[in-house]
Protein 1
Amino acid sequence: MKKIMNAAADIVRESCEGFAVAHADLVKLNHDPLFLYRADLATQGERPKVALISGGGSGHEPLHAGYIGRGMLSAACPGEVFTSPVPEQMLGAIKATAGQGGALLVVKNYTGDVMNFELAAELAAAEGLEVQSVVIGDDVAVQDSTWTAGRRGVGGTVLLEKIAGAAAEQGASLAEVKQVAEGVMAGVRSMGLALSGATVPAAGKPNFTLTENEIELGVGIHGEPGRERAQMRVADQLIDALLGPIVADLALKRGEEVIALTNGMGGTPLLELYVAHRHLCRQLEGQGVRVARHLVGNYVTSLDMQGMSVTLLRASSEQLRLWDAPVVTPALRWGL
Amino acid sequence: MNSAQTRQFLQLYAGSIHAHAQQLTDLDAAIGDADHGSNMERGMTAVLAALPERGTPAELLKSAAMTLISKVGGASGPLYGTAFLRAATSAAGKEDLTPQDVAQALQAGYQGLIERGRAQPGDKTMLDAWEPALHALPQGVAAAAQAARTGAEATRTMLARKGRASYLGERSIGHLDPGSVSSALLFEALAQALEHNT
C-alpha cells in the first residue's frame, strides 16, 4: 500500500484540517467532537429554520463535508474511514447548527450509521432538541427485504442533500424538509460497479481483488459485494448492465424526466466517466426519457476504488426547481 | 465479581482485542468492511484510558460503555456500548456481584444487543456467541466461554441476515462472523478474570 498519509490513525483528522483551511470561507471545523459546519451560521444571525445534517464513514469524499454550505448541508460528521461517526459528533453538530425549526438528519442505510444516528437522535431529544431523521437506501443491487439490512445509501444521497438543502434554505419547516427528502428517496435509484477493490488505510490491503477480466457488478461504496462477479466488457455494455436494473426498478416511462448522476468511485478518470455518461444519455433518450439535469464526476467515492455508479432521480418540476436553486459548497456550486 | 475483577476483565479483554485485532479485521474484510479489529482496538484502548481509579463494578462497566459508544463508531460501538450499559444498570449499587448477579447483568446486556441490533440468534451476529454462552452459564463462566467459542465457530455455516455481511447473501456462508469472535474473546476474558481471583 502506498498512500499520501502520515499515520493511518490520523488520516481523517488531518484531512479535515486541510479541508477546513482550504475552504475557510465556507466551513468551520470543530475538533472534539469532530464535525464541520457552515462558516456563515455564526455571523448570519439567523440560521435557516431547519438544519440539514449528515455524516458517515470517511473515504467517500467529497461526501459529506464537501456539501456543506448555503443551499445544502448545515453540518457534516466524518467517522473513521468506512466507519460510522459516533453520537457525540452528531449531537455537537445539531447544537452548533439547529435552527428554530430543529434539524433533519440524513442517514445512509448502513447498520452502524443507523444505530449511531439513532442514539444521537435519542440524546438530542432528551435535551429538548427537535430532530427528525431520514434513512436513504437507493442501491438497487441489494434485495430489499426484512431478511437483509436493506438497500444501501449511495449516490442518491447527493441528490437528496442538494434538493432537501434547497428546501431548508428557502425556509421550509422540519416536516416540509423531511417530506421533500422522502420525495427524493421515493424516486431515486443507483447501481455501481468496481474494476478494483479499495484499500482502507488501517487495513493496508485492498478489501477485495479482481482478476484482469473480472468486475464486481452492483458493488457498494465500501466494497461490499453486489449482484455478481461478472466478466469485463466495453463501456457501453457496462452502462447497460447498470442502467437496466435501475430503469426496471423505477419503472421509468416514456416522457418522464430524470436527473442523472454518473459518479466515479475515486480511481476512475473523468475521461472514462464521460464515455459512460455519453452512452447513458443516449440509452435514456432512446427510451423516451429526458435527462433534464446532468452531474458527472467523483461525488460519492470509495477511496481509491476504480469503478463507477449511475444514479437516476425521476424528477418532478418542483424537484428540478430545488435542484436549480443556488448552492455554494466546496464540491457543488451554481446559481450564484 | 468485585471491582478488581471487573477491572481485570476489562484489561484482559483489551489485551485480547489487541492480540487479535488483525484476525478480527481479516475476518471482517472477508464479509464486511475490514474495520472490526481496528475499531475494537481503538475502543478498548480508550476504555482503559478513561477507566476511573475507583468504583463499583457497575461504575466501571458504565464508564466502559460510555467510552465505547463515544469512541468506536460502526455497529460494534453502539452494540457493545449498549450491552455494557445494560449490564451496568443491572449491577448498579453492588460492591461484589454474586454469580446470579453476573448472570443477570449478562442477560440484560444480551437483551440490549437484541433491541439495538434488531437481530435474532441464527442471523450470523454477536448473538450467536452470546446466546449459547448464557445458556451454558449455569455450569460456570468457563463453560460459558467455551460455548461462546463454539457458537462463534458455528456462524461459519450461517447465512448473514444483518449488517454488511447480509449484502453477500449466500456468499456469506463459509466465513466466521467477526462480532461473534470478538464476543467469544469477551467471555474468555471474563472467565479468566473470574477464575484468577476466586
Protein 2
Amino acid sequence: MAAIYSLYIINKSGGLIFYKDYGLAGRMDTNDSLRLASLWHSMHAISQQLSPISGCSGIELLEADTFDLHCFQSLTGTKFFVVSEPGTQNMENLLKHIYELYTDYVLKNPFYEMEMPIRCELFDINLAQAIQKDRVAYLGR
Amino acid sequence: MQFFGSSEISPSPPVPTASGNNAHMMYVFNRNGVCLLYREWNRPLRTLDSNQDHKLMFGLLFSLKSLTAKMDPSSGDKGNLGVPQLPGQGCSFHSFRTNTYKLSFMESPSGIKIILVTHPKASDLRESLKYIYNLYVEYVVKNPLYTPGTPIKSELFNTTLDQYVRGLG
C-alpha cells in the first residue's frame, strides 16, 4: 500500500501545472484532474472568507472518510497538495521538500515558463526519489 | 453511513477534552440548504451579512463534498464531478483545518448538516456532533410545535446546546 495516492501542483490562478498519481485506482481523467484542481483553488479561497478570526490562509488539512488531503501554499500563491492515507503523519515536511525540489529544478530551469505545466526531467527524477524515500520511511515505522 | 443509535440521548455525553470555550460558531442546514440554526459564540471577524454567509458556507460544503467524492482513491468509478449526491452516497469528509479554525461536519441520513467551527487545535469532534444531533432530535424534531424546514426557535434546545458546547475542548 502506498502512503501517498497523488500529488497536485496548481499555479496562482488555479490552473493545474503538475499531477502525478501513485495510487492503485488508476489515473484520473485529464479533464477531471483539471476541474478538481480549480475547484480546490476556489474552496481554498472561500475557506479564508469564512474564517471567524482574521489572518486565515486557507485549508491546510482536509480529512475525508478514505483519505487525507494536505495542502501547502507558497508565498507566491502556488499550491502543492498531496492525497494520502488517513492519519498519515509528516506530510508538511514532505510538501516543503517538494517545494524545495520545485524551486531548485523547475524555477531555476531557464527553459521553464512561469505558470505553465511542469515538464522537467530532473524534477521528475528527484520527486520520484523523495516519494520513494517517504514510502520507505512509512513502511519502516 | 452510520445511523445514530437509539432515539434516547446517551446518558453521558462524550467527555470534553479540555476546559474553556473554544467554539466559534455552529450552523445547522437541512437538505435543501435552508439554514435552520446559526449560533455564534466568538466571532471577531465578519466579512459578509448573515444571509450571504450562510449561503457561502453551504456552497463550500456542497462543493467540498463533490470534491472528496471525486477524489476518493479507494474506488474506480465515481461518476461526474458536481453531480448532486444523496446523503451517505460517495466519499464525504468530516473535518478540515486552516491556521485559524477547524470546521467539523456531519450529515445525517435525512440530509441534516451540522457544522461546528472551533479552535484549530480541537480534537476529533465526530462524537460530539453526533451528540448534538441527538439533542436536535430530542428537542426539535420531537417538539410538536415545530414545523420541519423552518428555523429553530426552541429556547430549551439553545440553552442545552450552549451548555454542551461551552464544555467542549
